[in-house]
Design goal:
Layout: E1 8-9, E2 12-13, E3 20-21, H1 32-38, E4 41-46, H2 58-69, E5 75-77, H3 89-96, H4 98-103, E6 104-105, H5 110-116, H6 128-132, E7 141-143, E8 150-156, E9 159-166, H7 175-178, H8 181-193, E10 200-206, H9 219-228, E11 231-234, E12 240-242, E13 254-258, E14 271-278, E15 283-290, E16 304-308, E17 313-315, E18 322-323
Parallel strand pairs: 4-5, 5-6, 9-10, 10-11, 11-13
Antiparallel strand pairs: 1-2, 3-18, 4-14, 7-8, 8-9, 12-13, 14-15, 15-16, 16-17
Length: 325
């Protein structure tokens, strides 16, 4: 795979790291199968499929097949999973496929508001999707009373993934309305109540207006997020990229705009995130899997990163077990 050019948006950029020796035998990892034999478990993240499903779309079909083949524990969604005035086979798929109905954790965004409500600005109306798949009745989920945000805990063996989902649609255009203080407080209150141990992973998702949401927090709120979280997800741009605030090039959470399974833009490839959870030390190997390819295969930087829980973030190449571009 050809390496993508460095992308700079505002204060954010892909940030090459000084080579760092990783703490696994990645020199022996030459294929995806090698990586999967080393992992504790895996899960995936999809975004911006706009109503398309594995029933009607080839990229979604490949994604679903690769999720199944990898025996992923669950799938996280970053929003815009529906589209008004379209068949929206994705709803049919979610209802009929028992595994997806029970193991998909979507983020509500403007497209869901538009589909279920009076328009993209109908804040929170897209939360009906959560009720439709029964997420509000799952024992591992605590709903925010607004009906569009929630906190889920997915326990796999002795590792717990904490997933905090916020509602930050593209519209209304006023960020104070689209991403209100009540949502930020839900995030901070939830983080403060998590007793993070060496076996806990914390992920936060908000679709967002510009492909990033942490810069909309106050400095005090950002400090809590950067200190405690491991993976931050955003959508809306249909473009995969890592976003790196100045001073956090190799520390803090891994921040990713999750791209799009089937509607990529601006030269990005269609794809989704597959996250391989590793032990000793606990870490995340995050791969942006190209759904334009004919098979799921090992990715390289800048489509591959390792995030050490309570530690650093580094671009990852498997060919020489060195983290760095």
């Amino acid at each position: 795979m050809k390496l993508a050019a460095v992308v700079v948006i505002g204060l954010f950029a892909f940030s090459p790291a000084a080579p760092v020796r990783v703490q696994y035998g990645f020199q022996n990892v030459n294929t995806l199968e090698d990586l999967e034999e080393t992992e504790a478990f895996s899960f995936s993240v999809i975004s911006d499929n706009h109503g398309s499903s594995p029933i009607d779309n080839i990229e979604m079909a490949k994604m679903s097949k690769w999720v199944y083949n990898s025996k992923d524990a669950f799938v996280l969604g970053v929003g815009d999973h529906l589209q008004k005035n379209k068949d929206n086979d994705f709803i049919t798929f979610l209802i009929r496929n028992e595994w997806w109905k029970n193991n998909f954790y979507p983020t509500i965004a403007d497209a869901e508001n538009d589909y279920f409500g009076s328009g993209q600005s109908d804040w929170g109306s897209g939360g009906q999707l959560l009720n439709l798949i029964g997420l509000n009745r799952r024992n591992n989920v605590q709903m925010n009373p607004n009906g569009a945000e929630y906190y889920a805990q997915m326990k796999v063996d002795d590792i717990t993934v904490h997933y905090i989902v916020l509602h930050f649609p593209d519209n209304p255009g006023d960020i104070k309305i689209a991403f209100p203080e009540s949502s930020k407080q839900f995030l901070i209150n939830t983080l403060n109540h998590i007793n993070k141990t060496e076996n806990d992973i914390i992920i936060v998702s908000a679709h967002s207006m510009y492909g990033s949401w942490i810069d909309c927090l106050s400095p005090a709120q950002q400090h809590i997020v950067n200190r405690k979280c491991d993976l931050l997800l955003a959508g809306t741009t249909h473009y995969f990229e890592r976003r790196t605030p100045e001073g956090l090039e190799n520390s803090g959470p891994l921040m990713l705009s999750a791209g799009s399974v089937n509607k990529a833009r601006w030269g990005s490839v269609n794809g989704f995130l597959q996250v391989h959870v590793m032990r000793n030390p606990l870490s995340l190997v995050v791969q942006y899997v190209n759904t334009d390819d004919s098979e799921n295969k090992l990715q390289v930087s800048p489509y591959s990163y390792v995030k050490y829980i309570n530690g650093g973030v580094y671009p990852l190449s498997f060919t020489n077990s060195i983290a760095g571009i």
